[in-house]
Structure formats: C-alpha cells, structure tokens
Amino acid sequence: MPRPTSPSALSTLFRLKPVTTEDDSGLKRVLGPASLVALGVGATIGAGLFSLTGIAAGDNAGPAVTLSYLIAAIACGFAGLCYSELASMIPVSGSAYSYAYVAMGELVAWIIGWDLVLEYAVGAATVSVSWSGYITSLLAEWGIHLPARLTASPFETVPLPDGTTTTGIANVPAAFIIALVSLMLIRGTSESARVNAVIVTIKLSVIAAFIGFGLPWIDTANYHPFIPPNEGTFGHYGFSGVMRAAGTIFFAYIGFDALSTAAQETKNPKRDMPIGIIGSLLVCVLAYASFSFVLTGIVNYKDMIGDPAPVATAIDRTHATWLRLAVKFGILAGFTSVLLVLLLGQSRVFFAMSKDGLLPPLFSKTHKRFHTPWLSNLFFMVITGALAAFLPIAELGHMTSIGTLLAFTIVCAGVLILRRTTPDMERKFRVPGGPVIPILGIASCLTVMISLDSLTWLRLVVWLALGAIIYFGYSRRHSLLNR
Questions:
Q1: pLDDT tens readout for residues 9-36
Q2: Structural domain of residue 108, as residue ranges?
Q3: Which of 102, 131, 132, 200 could potentially form a cystine with 335 if both were Cys, beta carbons 3.0 to 4.6 Å apart?
Q4: For residue 6, is it within any domain?
C-alpha cells in the first residue's frame, strides 16, 4: 500500500521559487518596446476579429458585440496591468507560470503552466486550420485548386468534383504553416520579430481600409435594438448574451499573455514589458471596437446567423470588390502573426518549466548558433502540426478562452500575494489603486469564466487531471527545489 502523505511531503506542493533576475537562459536579448507592441498586436488581432465577431453577433449579442469586446477588454485591462507589474518584477520566461511559482508555489505553477500549454497548442492548431481555409480560397480565386482531401482532417467530409463526398486525409496546408512558422522561430527571435512587424503593418492597414470604406454604408437601423431581447435561453441575446459573447471572444485577447513569455529575450524587460503589454492592448481594443461596430452596422446581426463569412458579406455591400482580396490577405497575415506568437509562447513556457526541472532537460536546450530552444520548437511543431492535420480542432477553440481566463486570474492574485510577501522588492511598474484593480481583475475574469458552457469546463478538468498524473509521476521528484 502507498505510504500516507506526511505534512512535510504536502508542504512541498507549495514550495516557492526564489525571486531572481539572473539570466543563465542562453537566450539572446534582442527585443525592444516597438517589437513587443508588434508581437502583442500580432498575437491578438487574428481569428477573434475576422472569424468570431460575426459568430458572437449572430448567436449571442447582436450589435452589442461591440459592448462584449469592451467588457472583455476591461477584464483584460485589469489583467494586463497586473501582468505588467509582475513582468517588471520577475523578468524571466514562462509568463503566468513563472509568476505563480514565485507567488503561490510549485503545484499552482504547474497547473497554470500545463494550462498555458493547452491554451497555446489548441489556439495554434485552431488558427492554422482557419489559415488553411483562407489560403485554399485565395488560391482558388487564382485558378489553383488544392486536392480537397488534403485540406481536411479524416473526421471531416469533403465534396469531390463529381458531386460525391468522401472523408479527408489530412489538412496539409495547416500542418505546413505550423512547420514554416516553427522553423522561422528556430532561426532566431529577432528575425521572427522583423517578419512579424511587416505582417502586423499589413493587417492593420487592411482593418483600417475596411473601416474607412465601410463607414458610408452603415445602416443605423441595424443598431436597433442594440441589445436584442433575450429569447428565454441564457446566452442567447440580452445581457447574458453580451456576457456569453465576451467569454467567447476572449480568445481574441491572448496576445499580451503570450507576449510576457519573451521576457528573457527583451533588452530591458523591467521597462519594456509594461510598454509592450499595455500598448498592444490599447491598439487591439481600438481595432476590435471599431471593426465590430462597422460590421454590425453594414450587416444586420440576424443575417450573420449561419453566415460563415460575414466580413465578405459586408464587403459585397460596399461594392468595393477589391477589398475582398485585400481582406483575405489581411486575414492570412493576421493568422500567421498569431501563430508566430502562440508557438513562441508555447515553447518558452516549456523552456521555463524544463529549466525548473519539472520537464525533461531537452526542452531547455538552446541552439548553439541561433540561441533559441530549438528542440522545444521542434517538439511542438510535430505535436501542434499533427493536431492541425488530423483533428477537427475548431470545436476546441473555447478551451483557449477558459485557459486564458484562468491564467489572468492567477496573475491578478499573484500581484496581491507578492505585495504582502515581498513588499520591498523593486517594481519598475506598479498597478495604481492598491488592491482594487487586481481584485477587479479576478472578479471580472471569474465572471466571464462562469458564462462559458459546461463542456468547456469538462475539457479543462480532464486536461488538468492528465497534468496531475505527470506532475506526481515525474515533475515533483525532478524539481530543482527538490534537490
């Protein structure tokens, strides 16, 4: 029979990692504030803007989807300020995982690190599948038709030229873009940041073009009622619909979460991380609110129900047909930059966990020439690429939202705990208002989490249970704090 857990053994679950700013990571510090803002915007503006806006408006909030974006942004703003304080205190890789290890102990750190891995893996796979759909559509407009069975997973049905249907083999374009971005990240962080800056410029230009050309075609009647009355089901219009939409589109606000994983590749993280986090959040809030307001003004929310491409519908009504092609380029750019930062964040969380002994040491080995965690990048290239190629991953998109919200909640709590346990530690940035903003951040994130469906919660519990098996089977014994 197993021996009962002793008090001393139980206490090891909550052992704290010492606060340190020493850099023995082997990573190159190449990122400045402008690059960080671009990385944050690159990770944030993508699927949430072009895909989720129409879904959230048609199914949940109506024209008030703009309000949903603002509500989600407020919760993100509270969390973003807390991220900024912790990033200025603990400028190391790992994001919420590293902050939780210092503030709450090893078990909580493991939970949030494992949660972040799911968040980034599912998010990247979902985005790559969407990228595949758009590149297939764009190539078709140029007369290039990819084999249908090579653009869908084995669990999806695809039409054949003779009118019959069959199942897919693998989503090859989705796996291809995962591999391409992963190899780019192995090549170097500074090179990846430069490519990302160009991509971000393209997609912000496309968003501005959509807003500018769409404004004259707004029909104000589409805004009435701004919040459609609830139809008797929680989350289907009314204020509950606005909140359900806010929970759904939280997927769109994971940028600064992934951004904070690059702290050990930032030239001056204590100063530049807060600038990158807050700056990218402000840019994205403005883009989301403006875009959703124009979209719901051009297309009535009822017409978005079941419409797989409401943005294309809106463009058709403006008669600016060239804008359709530009928006497809912008969407592809958006998806690509999101993938870049998600895969960057994914490998850096595993890098930090490996450095702490919670994962095998191969995940923290850096390339002698490129100074990047190349084995970690290759591992996730294979795993995420396989998810994208062989699974109908779109249904798991909600998992990214609940994972993000859990990370935000723990970060806000970490600010409160560290102010009590290490009040004299240097903070280059400090959240104003004492405990008010961290408490509001915790409350707002938990409120949005509650609005998510039960299946999403079940998936989270199952994933964390799997993580618990790995932690108690390997990580707890191999932890550096156990030596």
A1: 666 788 888 866 555 555 677 788 888 8
A2: 34-475
A3: 131
A4: no
Question: Is 107 inside a domain boundary?
Answer: yes
Would you say residue 255 has pLDDT above 70? Answer: no
Q: How many domains does the chain have?
A: 1
- 270-303 confidence digits (pLDDT tens): 788 888 888 888 888 899 889 999 999 999 998 8
CATH number assigned to the domain comprising residue 409: 1.20.1740.10
pTM above 0.85, yes or no: no
How much is the mean pLDDT over the chain? 83
Question: Which comes out higher in pLDDT, residue 60 or 310?
Answer: 60
Is residue 125 in a domain? yes
Is 11 part of any domain? no
